[in-house]
Design a protein that fits this description.
heterotrimer, A mainly alpha (354), B alpha/beta (337), C alpha/beta (248), A: 354 residues, two-stranded antiparallel sheet, 15 helices, 2 strands, globular, C: 248 residues, alpha/beta, six-stranded mixed β-sheet, four-stranded antiparallel β-sheet, 9 helices, 35% helix
Chain lengths: 354, 337, 248
């Protein structure tokens, strides 16, 4: 159900999304990363805000996806195979035709997404026995373990990393192309989640958040819902990881598993915007990204101080985030019904709120 | 003893009268409700002594009776609203007191966050009196107690105790300066601390720990049941003993006013009477002023001098406790028949 | 007892050195309303917890609808059709009432609703109908955490009914509820039992409630089964009076 608020918001974002790179071509990649952050925030919130399981390890799927895509892209059309390519440490520069490149990219992204999904299902079998802070730390451990494990595997270049295939086309086209991929991924993710939250699934994960024991006692098969929720997040994280890897041009442990930065950013963005709301993650990602970019321009290394401060202020004074604050101040605009007999009007209402 | 068999015989008769399980009759006709239909019993401005007359209405445990008066929540609200339209004036509230006003609430608008639960609520009680708040769930009864003690957002209005304005005092100030103690609704002992430690916690605001210890000893002198268990963790006490501990812990600061939130909730029948005996003792012997919320309305009204019926944040009816018990509208709408 | 839907045989449970349930045997007849009374700490809630699989039992056997369930856990037993309500009312406090109801739909394998079913439609209609049944229709769009205590209890009951269970275990359903509303609750419980065929097992302290509701009552004391029988019998049983009812 699209409400007038939503139409305005989608309109504004649509304008930004479509006109942004046209009006500000120098910022195309920056806005591309913005959409990437939006996707990361939205998918994190599925588990974190809507279901109450704060994962610090979603970045695992991002990194795995990145590497899986690299393997697929290279092995598809380079006859020597990935192992030979990586051990050459950049000296081999394969020549792909345009169609080979894009086909490889397509399969790479798909494989990356599926890999993320499969990995999350595997993790689900033991991770969801943990609750609260234990789940958070456990998932963080997964990310760190994945990063460390990757650099031991020579097949994927170990510590030296992998050079991604060169994009066939000039820089402008490249930026625009990857911009469209990021924007498209974010749009698909958002609308899929929007639909999902409007079904019984949305209610189920909210119930798990509000009172998991009660949900179990009412017969809700919580593990099924947890698996699906994390699976969807992992699918998109894997996909966007593949895209990010190609955008970077070169991947290694730092690019694939940026745990202390992007891994934490996605949480910070959602907290800023408002956990557990449809627009909170989007809003938080946009604001966070804009602040990040401007502080980098003007404060350089003090950027991290600024971002840290925002995080602290958010958690101490502003826990409900922007959307949470707006919803408390203007509940009717968000469809939240307040009991009329108890609103602060002062005069006698008489009778029950009918 | 004779009373018990008499009561049993009475309830047995009531039981057999309802032998044929009747389907509950929904009262669809909204009766034009009048405020009081006081029977011929003369009720002067008495200080509500527990005379032999009152023991006739002695309610034990949760009370007995049938369950056939069924009304929907909305229906109760509608009929109660028509009663509330003729709400009691301040003068009428003060008429229920034998002497001066000790604690008064004046046109209070209060609630939680932005929600206003009480609308222009007023209350009068004299020293050493007891007052029971009854009414539907969500009417604001606990909010009254919370407001007196300082747990709510007060939008307007005031609360006076013994001539002093105490509206904006913090809860700890209410306890230490204004002599008001709040006894929470159920399960508020510290389960892993001993009985004695719980009592000492009641005296936390005292200037010296020695004073708290002395006050705790006074409590042990008064209630030997607690003294017997002074070193046991509070979590192993039975329900009635826990309630006793909760009440006596509040007494350590020697308050004048006791705010009791649902004294009998979750208690088994034999302890309900015990708890009310303790409260009566505190009122009669120690002169405490008691304001309580009690969903076990029959028992609450049988105990208290004054009863207020709250509906949707306003006082609908205020009268002497036993007069409310006899009021057929009150019985139908709020006492279950 | 011709057809027990819940059969408890020689169940014992201890924890932390406390013998909470000692050799308890009882049956709940299908389609009946059975009561459980007894002093605080006598093991009533522990018995409930054992039956619904909240914790494993030390000894004994529990059968539901002919099936042994003592080794099953809460979710599995709930999906077999046995639900319980909690002494401290538990609802999904950040969701509104209708949503609370909708998610309480049955998740049994034979039920019609699927994971991705839309939130409008038949489920929503049934949810609103049941909210009306318990008298919460006018509050249906409010956030359930904002409701008063008594209203939350009603919501919890409505959620249980939404699930269409075969048996419902209610832990002190009327504690803290206004007396007139208690009558309404009892009326609705009776109707749920008669019209919907739900077997009820109720823990209660309010004798007015249990005497008017249950056809058979079990009294526990100190972890043991003290007495059982029809309401009138138990009310006059000296053991029950001494241990529980009191009276002067």
């Amino acid at each position: 159900m699209i409400k007038s608020n939503d139409v305005m918001a989608y309109g504004a974002l649509g304008v930004l999304g479509i006109l942004g790179p046209i009006l500000f071509p120098d910022y195309t990649l920056s806005i591309a990363y913005l959409w990437m952050m939006v996707l990361m925030a939205c998918t994190w919130d599925t588990l974190g805000g809507q279901m109450g399981y704060n994962s610090l390890g979603n970045i695992t799927f991002f990194g795995v996806g990145m590497y899986v895509s690299a393997i697929v892209q290279i092995s598809f059309f380079y006859d020597g195979g990935v192992g030979e390519y990586t051990s050459a440490m950049g000296s081999i520069k394969p020549e792909f035709t345009d169609s080979e490149y894009f086909l490889g990219l397509f399969w790479g992204i798909l494989a990356a997404s599926v890999a993320g999904l499969v990995l999350s299902v595997l993790f689900s079998s033991f991770m969801f026995g943990l609750r609260g802070p234990y789940f958070a730390i456990g998932s963080l451990g997964l990310a760190i373990a994945a990063a460390e494990l990757t650099i031991t595997i020579d097949y994927v270049g170990g510590a030296s990393g992998i050079s991604m295939p060169l994009f066939p086309g000039d820089i402008e086209f490249r930026s625009t192309f990857f911009y469209m991929l990021c924007f498209g991924a974010a749009v698909i993710a958002h609308f899929l989640l929007r639909w999902l939250y409007s079904t019984q699934f949305g209610l189920a994960i909210n119930a798990i958040r509000d009172d998991e024991d009660k949900a179990e006692a009412m017969g809700i098969p919580t593990l099924v819902y947890k698996r699906i929720g994390w699976g969807i997040a992992a699918f998109f994280m894997g996909g966007i990881g593949a895209i990010a890897g190609n955008m970077a041009g070169f991947i290694d442990k730092e690019v694939a598993y940026p745990v202390p930065t992007f891994g934490i950013f996605m949480v910070a963005m959602v907290l800023l915007g408002g956990k557990g709301t449809l627009w909170g993650p989007v809003l938080g990602a946009i604001i966070f990204h804009v602040i990040k970019e401007t502080t980098w321009t003007y404060l350089l290394n003090l950027q991290w101080v600024a971002l840290g401060l925002i995080l602290i202020v958010n958690i101490v004074y502003f826990q409900q985030g922007i959307m949470g604050w707006l919803q408390a101040k203007f509940p009717e605009r968000f469809g939240i019904v307040v009991d009329p007999s108890t609103t602060q009007v002062g005069s006698r209402q008489g009778g029950d709120g009918q | 003893m004779a009373e018990r068999t008499k009561k049993k015989a009475a309830s047995k008769k009531a039981e057999s009268e309802k032998a044929a399980p009747k389907k509950a009759v929904k009262k669809t006709v909204a009766k034009k409700a009048s405020k009081t239909t006081a029977p011929a019993k003369k009720t002067a401005k008495k200080a509500a002594n527990k005379s032999a007359k009152k023991t006739e209405q002695n309610v034990s445990g949760y009370g007995s009776g049938g369950v056939d008066v069924v009304m929907s929540v909305d229906q109760v609200a509608k009929e109660a609203a028509s009663i509330a339209a003729a709400a009691p004036t301040i003068k009428e509230l003060e008429n229920l007191l034998p002497g001066d006003v000790y604690l008064s609430i004046n046109d209070l608008c209060a609630g939680y966050g932005k929600m206003e639960i009480l609308h222009d609520f007023s209350l009068r009680i004299g020293q050493g009196q007891s007052l029971c708040l009854i009414g539907p769930n969500g009417a604001g009864k606990s909010t009254v107690l919370h407001s007196i003690f300082g747990f709510t957002n007060i939008f307007s209005g005031s609360i006076m105790v013994n001539g002093k304005d105490v509206t904006s005092l913090t809860p700890s100030q209410k306890l230490s300066e204004a002599g008001i103690a709040y006894i929470l609704q159920d399960k508020s002992v510290f389960p892993q601390m001993t009985v004695e430690e719980n009592l000492l916690m009641g005296g936390f605001l005292k200037d010296k720990p020695a004073e708290a210890k002395a006050a705790a000893e006074m409590v042990f002198d008064k209630y030997s049941r607690l003294a017997d268990r002074r070193n046991k963790p509070a979590g192993v006490l039975s329900g009635g003993e826990r309630r006793l501990l909760e009440i006596s812990r509040a007494l350590v600061m020697q308050p004048q006013v006791l705010l009791v939130d649902e004294p009998s909730i979750g208690l088994e029948p034999r302890f309900i009477d015990m708890v009310f005996e303790i409260l009566e003792d505190l009122q009669r012997k120690d002169g405490k002023t008691i304001i309580m919320v009690e969903q076990n309305a029959k028992k609450g009204l049988a105990f208290a001098d004054i009863g207020y019926v709250l509906v949707s944040g306003e006082t609908a009816i205020a009268d002497a406790g036993d007069r409310l018990l006899e009021n057929p509208d009150v019985g139908r709408l709020f006492l279950g028949g | 007892m011709s057809d027990p839907i819940i059969n408890v045989e020689n169940v014992s449970k201890s924890y932390g050195g406390v013998h909470a349930n000692v050799d308890i045997t009882m049956q709940v007849e299908r389609g009946s309303i059975t009561g459980i009374i007894g002093p605080n700490g006598c093991g009533k809630t522990t018995l409930f917890n054992s039956i619904v699989g909240y914790h494993p039992i030390d000894q004994g056997s529990i059968q539901f609808d002919g099936q042994e369930i003592s080794k099953l856990r809460v979710g599995d037993i709930a999906r077999l059709g046995m639900l319980r309500t909690f002494q401290q009312t538990r609802i999904y406090s950040k969701m509104d009432c209708v949503d609370n109801m909708q998610i309480s739909v049955s998740h049994r394998p034979d039920s019609k609703s699927s994971i991705f079913a839309s939130r409008k439609g038949e489920i929503r209609d049934r949810a609103e109908h049941l909210l009306e049944f318990v008298g919460l229709y006018s509050k249906r769009n409010l956030i359930s955490g904002d409701l008063s205590f008594g209203q939350q209890k009603l919501l919890e009951l409505a959620m249980a009914l939404m699930n269409e269970p075969k048996a419902l275990l209610l832990d002190e359903p009327t504690a803290g509820i206004n007396p007139t509303l208690i009558n309404g609750l009892i009326d609705r419980l009776r109707r749920a039992n008669e019209e919907l065929g739900i077997t009820l097992c109720v823990i209660e302290h309010n004798m007015r409630v249990i005497m008017n509701l249950a056809s058979h009552i079990y009294c526990l004391s100190n972890g043991h089964m003290l007495a059982d029988g029809k309401p009138a019998e138990l009310q006059n049983d000296q053991r029950v009076i001494d241990a529980y009812l009191g009276g002067h």
